[in-house]
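= Tokenised fold =
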Amino acid sequence: MTDIPRILTIDDDSVVQKVVQQALNDDYEVFAENNGKDGIRSAIENTPDVILLDVEMPGMTGYDVCKQLKLEESTANIPVIFLSSLSDMRSRVLGFAAGGIDFLTKPFESAELKTKLNILTTFIESKKELTEEVSRATNTAFTAMKGSSELGLAIQFIESSYGARSLQSLADKFLSVTSNLGLHCTLMFIGRKERSFYNADRAAISPLEQEVISTIHDNGKRFIDFGPRTQINYRRVALLVKNMPLDDPETYGRYKDFLPTMLGSTDAKVQSLETEQALIGQTQELGASFTAVRSTLVAVGESLEKNQNDIVELLQSMLSELEERIPKMGLEDDQEAYIVKRIDNTITSAEKIIDSSANTSHAFKSVSRLLQHLAEKQQSLLDSVVPEDLDESDTENGNGNTDDGFSGEIDLF
């Protein structure tokens, strides 16, 4: 209602109009129409707080006028008090059915009219206050529901992030949440060797935007606002929101509480992924080293075994030849005995060396089997860490004063 309540009188009796004018002029703004059609037009144009409506009028009756007013959106909630010389129950029931809130019988006293209007305006004011309270309570409830919904999104993201096997997969999960909130964002991950950048549609990110995000991150502030943009920084992750609702402090405040919950979890996951990738790389390198050393040992062992066989064949050939030639050389018995003995001693020594080499060959084979076992265990460990259904996007790298070194202060550019 306005500061001075407005009363519209719709009555073809000029005397009634004057009575109403004189009775209410000091406390109300009063204007009048003398037929239903003009009354409806005036009600739509002026939106009075109360309508005093005569029942018996030429053309449209008061009941018809009231029904028409209740069909119009702008006048449907305006209280209507019927004025009539009829006081029977049927007239009152018809007035109630048409949408009236009270019934005043002509002729009436000014004091009676004032009393009814005072009661009615008090009721209207109370209803307005109650409506405002309901509206405030509804807004509070919706705000709480929104906050609860956003918290649910954060929890779902944190749960799903456990299964992310690459920075790209983690970024996709994060940006899916911000897209659902209608936020346009760029995400930066800070690795040990490089920084990688991501957005929801995987479009190219300009070098200038990458430089701006990196520079703001290195500024050392947790929150940075510039224009409609806000950047939130953690040690290993930074989020640039390009359409932060700065004109809506309530929503802005919710996002300032909500987004760090996701970013803190993301920061820990980035570290976990880097550690996991480093361990996978180390395991792969170690397995390759085991395989290379084993192959070398196998080759050395095979070469040693071949050399042993060659020496045995050589000695056997020499012995056969000497056994055939010595009797024909005309040597004395002692000379022949000396040569034979010397040859036997040499062959015996060679056999000992060959036996020793055989032990070395067995040792090589044992070490080779051990390396094979270790390589298989490393591969088994690698298979348990890297799922079989891991696709290329999950293994490729992107391009891209609190405990983590960022202050909680908010900077405004």
Summary: The longest helix spans residues 249-325. The chain has three domains: 6-133, 142-274+404-412, 277-395. Residues 137-148, 389-400 have pLDDT under 50 and may be disordered.
